[in-house]
Amino acid sequence: MGQIMKQAQQFQAKMSQLQEKLGEETVEASAGGGMVTAVVNGRQEVVSIRIEPEVADPDDVEMLQDLVLAAVNEGLNRAREMVNEEMGKLTKGLGLPNIPGLV
């Protein structure tokens, strides 16, 4: 029982370290051939959005909204993939099964 508690404490400490590390790591995704770019961190937070001026057409705001939405969603997907990959490394190192979505 003591060994299980020790493993749980180690896992918790490594999990905290991983969450901190992932909060500092970012992924980038773009839409519209790079006209809109979203940067998302490992905490699933949108860090920044870049919009090229030529895509900001006041007569076609709907297109810009679609591009922003596509870039943000792709960025969030990539961030989730990054987190799942890092979690897999952590759980494998501790001899635990990979548990998607744990972070």
Topology:
Elements lengths: L1 H23 L1 E6 L4 E6 L4 E6 L9 H33 L10
Antiparallel strand pairs: 1-2, 2-3
Helix pairs in contact: 1-2
Net shape: rod-shaped
**DSSP, total strands:** 3
Architecture of one domain in CATH? 2-Layer Sandwich
Roughly what fraction of the amino acids lie in strands? Answer: 15-25%
Low-confidence stretches: none
| Helix/strand structural class | alpha+beta
CATH topology of one domain: Ybab, Chain: A
Q: CATH superfamily membership of one domain, which one? A: Nucleoid-associated protein YbaB-like domain
What is the CATH class name of one domain?
Alpha Beta
Strand line-up of the largest beta sheet: 1-2-3
Description:
The protein is α+β, with helices and mostly antiparallel strands and 103 residues long. It has a domain of 70 residues: Nucleoid-associated protein YbaB-like domain (Ybab, Chain: A, 2-Layer Sandwich). Helix content is 54%, strand content 17%. The chain is built from 2 helices and 3 strands. The chain has a 3-stranded antiparallel β-sheet. A hairpin with a 4-residue loop joins strand 2 and strand 3. Helix 1 runs antiparallel to helix 2. The chain is rod-shaped, with a radius of gyration of 18 Å.
